Amino acid sequence: MRILALRLAAFRRFGAPVAIENFDAGLNVLAGPNEFGKSTIFQALEAAFLLRHGTSGAILDALRPRNGGEPLVEVDFETSEGRWRIRKQFGRGKAALLTDLKAMKPVARAGDAEDRLASLTGVAHDGPGQAAPGRMGLVWVRQQRALLPPDPDIDPVSGKAKPRGEASALIELLGREVEAAAGAGAAARINQRVKAALGELITPGRDGVKKGGNYDAALKARDEAGRHLARARQTADASEQRFARIAELTVALAALESPEARTGERQRLAAIEKNLTEAVRLRSSRDVLAAEFKSRGLEAESARQALDLHAASGARRASLEDAIAAAEALESEIRSRAANLNACKATPARLQRLFELERDAALARGELSSRSATVEISPMPGAEDRITANGAAIRMPARIDVDGRLDIEIAGVGAIGVMTADPAQAAAAKARYQAAEAGINACLAEIGVSTFVEARMRGEARAQNAAELDQDRARLSGLAPKGVAGLAQELAGLSHSSSQSGSGGSAGSAGSPGRAAELEREALAREAAARSAGRDYEAAKAAAPDDAAIRSTTAAFEAARQSTSRNASEARRIAVELERMKGEQSGIDEDGRAGEVPRALGEVERAERDVKRFEAEIAALRLLTSTLSEAETAVRNRYFEPVARALAPYLARLFPDSGIDFRDKFSLEALNRAGEREEFSTLSDGTREQLAVLVRMSFARLIAERGAPMPLILDDPLVYSDDARLDAMCRALEDAALEHQVVLLTCREKAFEKITGRRLAITSWLPG
Amino acid sequence: MPVRFIHTADWQLAKPFANMPPLLAGELAAARLSVIARIAAIAHAEGAAHVLVAGDVFDSDLIESVTIRRALEQLRQETAVTWVLLPGNHDPARAGGLWERIGRLGVPDNVVLLADQKPFALSPDATILPAPLTSKNPGRDPTAWMDHAETPPGVLRIGLAHGSVHGFGSEGESSVPLARDRAAKAGLAYLALGDWHGAKEIDARTWYSGTPEPDRFKDNDAGNVLSVSIDGTAPPHVKKIASAHFNWLHIGRAVRSIADVRSIDSQVAALSDAASRVLVDLKFTGALTLSEYAELETWKHLFEGRVRHLELDQSALALAATREDLESLDRVAGADGAQNGVLTAAATYLASIAQDPSHPQKEAAGLALRRLFAFAAEEREAGA
């Protein structure tokens, strides 16, 4: 089909009648600013072919112009069957008239005209209102419709697919391919059933369990059965343990209460007790012998001491007697020495005085000497009587000390006086000397000696005597501190006590040999007795258990005694515990709680089987639905193929070496460009718009290839395209116009300036 | 005058059957309890005054007391019979355990508990030598003592034990070993054994009675009691008598067509009215086509109504998807004669997996294929 002319009156923007009479078979462009009426022209074409003339209500109101009037539209068109005119008056005076232009005669009116029109154009009227646009819908693209896929064709009232909707038209158009994909609809419906069945078991996401579904119930039953089993096992295990314990306790109690055990216990205790008694007896016997040994020892020691004492008193007596003799001798000597001492006048005092006088004499003699001069006179032989000194003849050489005055007369010669320097002092010294000499002589006389040496010797002898006297006195004092009388007294006392001591009433004085022998015998006897007691004690000590042994025997006895008592109380305790355990088990047995395991196991088995069944079902349904989906996809790809083929040359104009993936219903899924897949939704507005228009162009091409061509009418497409793309799109549209009529309504006059095609002109019209 | 008694074992009263549907489990448990009355009737018919139960009277020694009371009451009511009960591995005579409990609950006059290794004078002519188990796994032969057990001269020695006989190919449930030649060694006129659930003759004087009421699908001659008659030193006369209420039937069937499946009907029909007391464990091998699989489903539903319980295992049943099967699917869409439609493609793919023995999704694919056909059938019906 191609449009030859369009006329309209009282139609939306156009109140006055207008017409476009210059449609070309190829590309037609109607460019005008906004509100120029381009969309009105598009709607007028739709109304002429698709809207029943009897339309009323809102649809009709939408067609009416603002200043009133009843819409009128008239279209001349050509099909393979001829040239035709459809004229539709809407609203008051509604009418439809189809005219054969060749014959120039009306061929149908009203509903008949519409039905005929539908069959001429392949559009179906299936209701009182708007017709399903079918193929027209695929290629008549309203403003902003280009991006939408073909209508889903579902009647909103019936919920059924419209038999002649856009998508159906496409399927019909792709008849061969669709036929090849026979069963696709049924497959889709069956897949819906599969999904519904699956949806009963799992959530649509396929991962979760559908709550309240049978699978959910089976899983819950399995979990519950598992829990029941775990509880049952716990109870059963506890019972098993209890039974084991009961068995253990029963055995233990029997062992404790068996007659053998009791007898054995008693015998063990008695044996230990006997051991202990014997040990105690041995120990006490040892202790008795120890005491015995000790007393015998003491007796022997005492006898020996008596003997020793006896011997000691004899020696003392002899010693005392010697001491008395010695002391008496000493006393006599002391007396003699004392008499000597008293008789000797060379007392130390006297000797001292003598020494002092000696010294005085020496001093005086010295002084005299120093004050005198020495005159030596040596008479010459023959002159011996001639010289006198102080009157005394000097016959032989003499030294004369001069202590005052010396008158020398030498007979025949004269007199010589020699005088000292201080004759007075010399005289004094001479006097002292003479006095000392006199004293010395007196003292010597007192001592009874004539010389000083004798005096000194006599003094030393006296000192010697005094020292010896002192020694004698000291010895006497040591020998007899209390004097000889004291010793004599002791001796007397000794003799007395000696006669008192001794045993056996033996006669004989102290220290007597008879007594000593008697004492000796006794001591020996006692010592022998002590040794014998010692041997007995050692034997008893060896036989008696030591402390550790007695402690251990005592402990063993105590332990055995406690063990007996413990066993008795253990038996009581076990009996009580046994009773308690049996009672507990009996309570559990009453309702068979511990016996639930087999039942719970069966439940688990059954629940597991159910779950497995559902899992197998789910696996099968999943496999089935995925298999069906894949098969559907494969089929769909087959019927997308012709569309893709028709699209290819147009696509190459804009996107060389690229391809398009369709989604169901021919909506665009992705652009495959230079090996890259780009999701449609990620593409720019301009690109999306261009691709969508290209798809519509491919539909038109396909329709043209497969029989009756249909004009491609685009209402204000490509609003987002840049100059380069727009240019490419223009070339594509020019290509398309070689295959079928193209009507481009645009407000972008300049943009489409360069497109080659008929410029449509709106002229006034006088409706006939 | 021969000594007569009934030999039975492994009653396992109060077995829960919890892996079965609850209603059936209740019936199965009830059938185990009611076997007491059936055995009493058999004893009466056989002129036997004693029933010897060779262990596992109860399924567990932990069962609830009310079950024990019910069992004791059942036994009490059968006044013509003296019941001689032996503890087995399921109900061992443990200290403080089940047998003491029975003692506390009150042992009926016509019930004898043999929980000790002590000879029991069954009659002036016969003495029982019991080998009670005192634990689940005693680890020694409890019949050993019989060799040296003293009995009055001229009196028949009858052993009563529970365990597995050495060298008996199919071991019993317990791990209690019994000497195979115990009867000969201990001079027993008869050794009544329990543990193995089928009736089984070990030698002329040694028998397993099996359980009187089967509890599993096993072809081992379960569901009987033995009527034993001993006359002097001659070998005992042992007669097997059916006592079961339920018939546990295991059927393995290799099928090539749905006709093979239907042949099972006649097998079950031969059981006549007893079919309602039949539990069937059915395992198919072989292969069916997809369309036959659908028929199998229908058959299964019908068959389930005819027996008391059906366990069907078709995991080993292969799916033979024919080209006709696969292509029939797309006819659902109404596109007659069309080739390579979505459904056919999907089914072909699934069939290829299902028929690949090494494919990990083999099972899922088989089931998916069957589901696909079922959904397609639903779709066809919805469209029609």
Describe what you observe in this structure.
The complex is a heterodimer of chains A (768) and B (384). Chain A has 768 residues and is of the alpha+beta class. In chain A, 60% of the residues lie in helices and 13% in strands. Chain A contains 18 helices and 21 strands. In chain A, the strands form five sheets. In chain A, strands 7-6-5-4-1-2-21 form a seven-stranded antiparallel sheet, covered by helices on one side. In chain A, strands 8-18-19-3-20 form a five-stranded parallel sheet, sandwiched between helices. In chain A, helix 18 (723-736) links the parallel strand 18 (712-715) and strand 19. The longest helix of chain B has 25 residues, at 22-46. Chain B is an alpha/beta fold and 384 residues long. In chain B, the strands form four sheets. A six-stranded mixed sheet of chain B has the order 4-3-2-1-13-14, with helices on one face. Chain B has a six-stranded mixed sheet with strand order 5-6-7-10-12-11, with no helix packed on it. In chain B, strands 15, 16, 17 and 18 form a four-stranded parallel sheet that branches. The N and C termini of chain B lie far apart (80 Å). Chain B has helices at 22-46, 65-77, 98-105, 182-185, 258-269, 290-306, 323-328, 342-354, 362-383; strands spanning 3-8, 50-53, 82-85, 111-113, 120-123, 126-131, 156-162, 164-165, 177-178, 190-194, 200-203, 206-208, 224-230, 237-242, 247-255, 278-289, 309-313, 317-320. In chain B, helix 5 runs parallel beside helix 6 (290-306) and helix 6 packs across helix 9. Chain B has nine helices and 18 strands. At the A-B interface, helix 7, helix 8, helix 15 and helix 16 of A face helix 2, helix 3, helix 8 and helix 9 of B.
